[in-house]
Amino acid sequence: MFFHYHLYNSANTVMKQLFFSILLFSISFAGMSQENLIKPQKVVADQWLKSWMLCGPIPLKLNSDPEKSWEHLAGFNTDYLKKSGGEKNPRIKSGDVVKFIKGSARWKYYESPDSVIDLAITLSKDAPVLAYAYNEIEAEESGLWLIGLGTNDGCRLWVNGVQVWDYQPSRGLKVDNDLIPVLLKKGTNTLLLKVEQHGNNWGFCMRFHPFSATAALERGDLFKVSSTENGISGIESSFSKVILAEIVQKLEVEVTDHQKNVVLKEERLFPFFSPLSLPSSDYQPYSASLHIILKNGETLHHDIEFTSGKRIGYSLFSRGKSDYRIVISQKASDSEHWAAWELQHWLKEIGSFEIPIYPPDQNYKGPKIVLGYNSFISEKTGAKEPDNLDESFRYFNSGPDIYIYGGKKRGTMYGVFTFLEKELGCRWYTSSVTMIPKREELKFSWYDHSEKPGIRVRNDFYFEAFDPTWAARNKMNGAMNYREQPGGTESYWAVHTFYPLMPPAEFFDKHPEYYSLIDGVRTHDRAQLCLSNPDVLRIITERIRERMRKSPEYLIYDVSQNDYYNPCQCEKCQAIVKREGNESGLIIWFVNQVAQAVEQEFPDKFIGTLAYQYTRTPPKNIAPGKNVIVRLCSIECCFAHDFRSCQQNSSFIADLQGWSAIAPHLYIWDYVVNFNHYIMPFPNFRVLQPNIKTFRENNAIGIMEQAAYQSRGGEFSELRSYLISRLLWNPDCNIDDVINDFMSGYYGRAGKFVRQYFDLLQNLVTSETHFQYGLSPFDQIYSEEFVRKSCDIFQEAEKIADNEEVLHRVEMASLPVLYLKCKRTPLIAKQDGSYAKFCEVVQREGVTHYAEQGESQRKAFHLEVENAK
After folding, report:
1. Which of 278, 479, 769, 854 gets the most CB atoms within 10 Å of its CB?
2. What is the spatial distance between Cα 638 and Cα 770, in angstroms, rounded to a whole number?
3. Residue-wise over 467-490: b if at least 16 C-beta within 10 A, else e?
4. What pLDDT score does 26 carry?
């Protein structure tokens, strides 16, 4: 009995244990199926994936090498899932342990209440660490989708065991920061995401979008160009070959070099990837234009900038020593020889070394800077020798050798100064103020730069800009009157020449018929010539021909109206005026005959005339001859706004476009200062660039920016003349960069305050503001608050001036405010010392002209202030 009882109780106990074990297993399995096992989610466009299996944190290490700061953190690339299939074949179950050095983490199920899977809250706030996230997606059919992914920080993504994305640097989480094309198979697809944490926030968000190749191109690297350490470049893609095979039919590649020359053009089929067969192994930048034809018929275009070739560093100089020599042919032009001396001089100023100048020597094997066009340039680049008058230039390196060439007259010279300016930071702000940075060494790997002038004849008509050396260094080639200048000038002889060519004192008494008929009476008093008189044509032609013979240095010789009105009203003159619709028709009719008469003897010269005031509007029928230059003047315009944006300038724009349509050579006479008050604040800087661009667009071959031309002291004359030189050479330059550079270089530490005043002044102009070249000190644009603020700013600028020389420059910049104060409140200006300071500065700086009138206006100004009570 006992035995049977014992067996019964033992069996009963075993049965109970087995029952409870089965029950616990069933409960556990049910819980896992409902909460701890990921269920495949149906792929739905734009729906957030909120349910994930997560595992982490797994510790990482910060990269100690700064050069690796853009790479994944140390330890990220380790496959921590090797015991469960690995990252390429993950077998994930809730509760599974992932082991790593000094620790472990378990997989757990998580469902987010919103779009973001916040790993910092869900897993850990530690850093640096990483976490895995696993999901399964059910697709009804195989096909392409875009995964919209955002992570904080770097990440890597596998789809069905294939790595499809990798992002390395740290970043903030942004919805759809990456759009990743993926191919989903019919049925269940696996997603494995690996996200690292650098610090602060940590998380990700993911959803699917219908596939769009355009979106993939715009937001991802469908195709890109990369280079190896050996300098070999090739086509790559961040997308898998599987994706590319599904979507891309053909890839057309065109590569251009820095000079816009096509160096490679080819067509590629799958798999698309292979090195680019570039013609040169030298390190240099390229542009790749990729034309992508998709299998669905869609076409995409993508432009890529890249560098190719092995990067080699060359030392132009180091610690006061250089192995280079300047090489220039003995047949080089005078300006090229001068440029060689300038290059030698400024390099010595920069690095305390002197490069010798030699003629070409085939036996010399050392590094060199070669000036002027030569046979090597032809062989290396295929470039033809530039015309002597061609002002464009190029400089480039071939190995350690540097070549600078252009047209002999000025092109090579301009190339040398641009090289010094662009590559070494040299500035020639004024004829007396240069900025030459000191350097211990200069190393380079690649040079290749070319430019050409935006305007053919560039006349910066400022007193400060007349210095021939400054003008040559700043690429100004135009002059009202001839001057000796390196490279020469394109000079314009005279203006308002009717009476200089036919003085009334010489002709009027015997031949009053040569002059204007006004209200039935012949007169020379503030009048013009009778252009329909054949004797006038004969005399003017003879005298302009004589001038051309005596002064062959000029490009253009002027035959133009006097600087007042009263054109001739005689019947013959007015018949031509009536036929042409205005007085300009008579002028062009006359000047064309003069130009035709001198053309055979002077085929390379021009006869110029004015489209000015009463002759500004172009004629209806007649056009200027091929050797006639029309000089259009903007004297009536509003200079508060650019020509195109101001209604007050609409008639000028119409005239400009009219002349542009008929004149083979259009030359602009523009106005950039207040001629009634040179020194007074004149806020027109914002119109300079758009107006010059407008002239260029209307085929102007030359521009003269008339300014304060009689003495120093014009408002911001140093800055404005420097900026104008930049704009005439390159109308598209960044004027803010130019202004900021000047403010810093010319005014030193005080430049930030001078710029503050500059902006305060320019901001006085609104859409309702209008003024011409004669702005009054009492114009409503100015206020006592503006004067007060300006004075305060200059006081701060003077306090921090680097030295006495810079202080004097700041005081010159403040003259306009002092002048304005003296004009508006002369008694206060005397009492608070403003007038005394004004007098001190103008005397010290040699300012003789406060306005175009000169001495009379200057005396009147001082009398007005000194007699104020």
Report:
1. 479
2. 6
3. bbebbbbbbbbbbbebeebbbbbb
4. 39
